[in-house]
Design brief:
The complex is a heterodimer of chains A (135) and B (65). Chain A has two domains: 70 residues; 64 residues. Helices cover 85% and strands 0% of the residues of chain A. The longest helix of chain A has 36 residues. The radius of gyration of chain A is 19 Å and the shape is flat. With 65 residues, chain B is mainly α. Chain B contains five helices and two strands, in the order βαααααβ. In chain B, helix 2 crosses helix 3. The chains are: A mainly alpha (135), B mainly alpha (65). Chain A: Keywords: Membrane, Transmembrane, Transmembrane helix. Chain B: This is Putative transcriptional regulator. Chain B: Pfam families: HTH_3 (PF01381).
Chain lengths: 135, 65
Amino acid sequence: METSNWQEQKKKNIKNLAIWTVGWVLTMALVTFGPKFIWEGNQLLTYLAFFLNLGLGVGMIFANRNHINGLDELDKKITFDAMAIALGVGVIGGLSFSVMDITNMIGFDAEISFLVILISITYLIAMVVGKFRYK
Amino acid sequence: MKNRVKVLRAEHNITQADLANSVQVSRQTINAIEKEKFDPSLDLAFKLSKFFSKSIEEIFEYHNK
């Protein structure tokens, strides 16, 4: 009975995280493209979309924390290792990228989206490596 | 840390999945413990101890790395 509850709670946490993430991604698209393509610069709607996106982002953070707390100890270790590597690469890579922009070592601006992509890819690779390591 | 989880599991004639369900972890966690790639927490060690009705020292043997 207890076992079943543990697994059901894990599935519920994953589903909950997926819902918050989809909501956050959709409202991010809304706040990015809405002012130009839907409500043509209406500031009130832009503010509403922005705060809706921000609220869903906060919800997603807590849903992610609940998801991680619900993992079993090996999955937690793999996840924490991957997060540590992603954070390190994000800080070091992000600052190095910024310095390259400031010193004109690169011919384009260091956009925040590059940093997000770098962290995401690093996290995914670290998760896969971790899964293989303990296979 | 060395352990006798695989031997004890075989003696009880249960699968990794059965043991994993009983102590509320994933099958991969049991597999990693049996292969001595992953050392369990004290909480999980106690659960395994209770499941096999053995003391922790009878299941796990500490080796200083």
